[in-house]
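Hi team, as promised in this morning's meeting, here are the two structures we talked about. I've kept the exact order from the run log so nobody has to guess. The first one is mostly here for context; it's the second one we should focus on when we meet again. Sequence first, then the predicted structure tokens.
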Amino acid sequence: MEAVLGIDLGTSYFKAGVFSRKGDLLGLARVPVVPESIDWIRCEVSTLQFRKYVVECISAALRESKCGPNDIKGVSYSSQANSFLLLDKNSTPLTPIFLWTDRRSIPTGERVGDYPGKELFLRKDFLLTTGIDITGPQGCVPKLLWVRKNSPEIWEKTASVMNVSDYLTFLFTGTFSGDAGTASLLGLLDLKRGDWWEDGFEQIEVSSSLFSTPLPPGTVAGDVTPYAAAEFHLKPGIPFAVGSLDHHVAALGAGAGVVSDFVESTGTVIACFTSLKDYAPLKGCAMGPGFQGQAPYYRLAFHDCGAVVLDWYSRNFVPDVPFEVLVHSAKEVPPGSGGLTALPCAHLYPDLQGFIGKGKYTPGYYIRASMESVAATLKGLLKRMVLENTPESMVATGGGAKSDLWLSIKAGLIGCDFITTLCPEPATSGAGILAGTAAGWADNPVDLSHSWFRVSRRVSPDSSLSRIYTVWYDEYRRILQRQKKGAVRWSTERR
């Protein structure tokens, strides 16, 4: 049997999927990533544990697929961004992998809002050159500069800086290369040129030679080495293609461009994706390089207000109630949640102060209000990306795509169809498509994506629900404006 392997280096889970030539998912594995946290600020994973996660994922996926090493004809990945490590001249890791959620470079006290590398992001030519306007103290650059200042003995030995996906590529192929899609989120890539931005590196006084070569997404970086084949239970000599940012690869796996040019992902965070023919950087968004056969660029916007809000409420306030029961109870709640409004990222407020309402509410109300808040956030991201033009349809991915209720809320609020695909893990499917292209199954990833895409269901806007949510959304925006001015009082009760 001929098959390919797609690896998803996610934030909460590493996943691996084995796919047939026809795009059938033969085996899937999910391994939870448990970061090593220190004082609730540092968040990292040792390189040894990272390798164990990848081995465990691949082994489990192969077992479920009943495929052996000789059956796998290509490998690729999707990846989180801004997670990195430092290595010495012998390519021996000097540090664990600093995850993007690590907060060590965020200053406290009087220096809040000031962080290492901020001057790079404030340059007038930053957005135009890099194509991104999504930056902050948790990125790679601020943490890299933090290491230089606070661990000079490590910095002196540093010969390489690798994104987590660069490190995966190095382990599999022995090459110092990565993908330009993940690299673009660093804020150090000249996107139009597809190479490192030397003026940016001079700004932070770091050499670009420390970083892996950024290749166009989907490029074959090399063959799996004999050493890697032995460690990861694969056959040596098969092609390894670099992937891209997880949202980009997931959009490919979800069939972006087949039924819609727009893809949303409701996971820990919420993201909205579309392809672009022209280079057009936009405030509040990020751009990156497209795949061969696709438009030259993609545009991405995301927000921390995602499914994490529902998970937080469930774990902290009704831990003994199964999540499925909570979602079912939310179906009985009327649109607008009886006047209960969840502010964006309600989980970041003390207790239930991220919810606004006048009355007593059962858990179903809090779940529905959280779903409505995330849907409203998605509507805001979409407006930011395409201004006032609403697409006819969007492909829904992530954990939120499994909920019919949530899809109906989004469809009613935004006013377009929401389509889901049969593959439960589009990021692994997209990585599988890149691996299949590298194996020679198609001329480009987009052609293979079209042949693999299968619609699971389509949820269209309900006209009566849309009318209700049109009024609700106007009031929701007024609440947010009042909240910014400090005029909202917290008045919710829970029973």
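And here is the second protein, the one for discussion:
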Amino acid sequence: MPNKYQKPSIIRKLAPFRIDDRAISYAEFAPKLYNLCMTLGFRKGLIMPSRAFCSDENQGWPIILLTKHFGTFPFNHGRVGGIVAIDRHGPHAHHGEDSVLVQASHVGYDPHTGVYGKCTRPKMAGTCISNSCGKITHVITPYLEQYRFAQERIFLHRDDKGMYLITVKNSFIDFDSHPVKNGLVLHLENIVKMSENGKIMPIAAISTSQTYEVAEEFRKRIDATGYIWKTGEGECIGKYLSEDLFYFREDLHETDESILLERNLIEFMPIIVTSRNPSLRAAKINIQLEFARTVESIRRGSEYAGKNLLYIAGLNIDISEYEGYPATTYFVPWAAHIQLKDGTPEKYSKPLEQDAIYTFLMEQDSINPEQADLKEEIGRMLAAPRFDIRSPH
């Protein structure tokens, strides 16, 4: 009897995203970005910047610095979590002769501990430390909870005969007769020994769990860590529940705009929940997927046709005020898309990858002689005559 055809799994690989030695303070990044536009031939006084940031208050200073160096408040191109609102390309393009789009998800960072994901809220009473991007945290939290629940309810053990075993709750097993509808699903084929006919058969069962003999390859992998197998009920799998041993089958939790963020992350949720810094990993993944999606939307659309355009994506790293130093934000460039109105050179026909765009930025001057004096501009507003504004008759 012929084998039943099975569609092969197609895996998407993430590109390496370097942070070390790639972070640029916004006080330096904003003028370098402006000078990069000048290097590319953008026109002074005709550049309309845009930003796709989260709405958190700690994204304010980057926006102010972009305002200062480009001489106008940036167009709002973003949704929660650092998602790009691609339906706003047209309005953005109509607000300036030349266009710049900066897209970034953000994450807090404590330089003392090296821990990502938290920031201090200065407008809250006392010392209030909370999640730096509440939307990313909100999206990944249900998956983190499921993962931690599974870590405590899957057991490794060894019986009196020396057989290496794993006991798994039924709710994590995708039975043919009762598949998992929502939740964490184990890749049992990566863990347990299979029968000669290719079936996965338990050697024992209790009211809520199944016990399987583990495959030799899995046992050797665990042994290589120095793990000592316990007899009896053994101990929970804990940190050994690695990203390749499970996936999530979920109806998406979000119902508002953040469903776009969850859609980006769901495929990579095992990588996120097993990370040392889940919010950082989620932000980096979202940036990569949003960059690819946005570049595709630009190339397929006509909104920016015949215009100078620089689209740069990266990670905003927020550092809270400490030891008398003000709060600050750093930008880690990821990739950039460049098109020029008089014809895009071959070297810009493909996106500039992380090393290339970082090098290009660092070649630019950190001083922008054309930056706006915001204090002076506000003073001029205050000194302007008061207009007599009336309702129409």
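Starting points for discussion:
The first helix runs from residue 26 to 40.
The radius of gyration is 26 Å.
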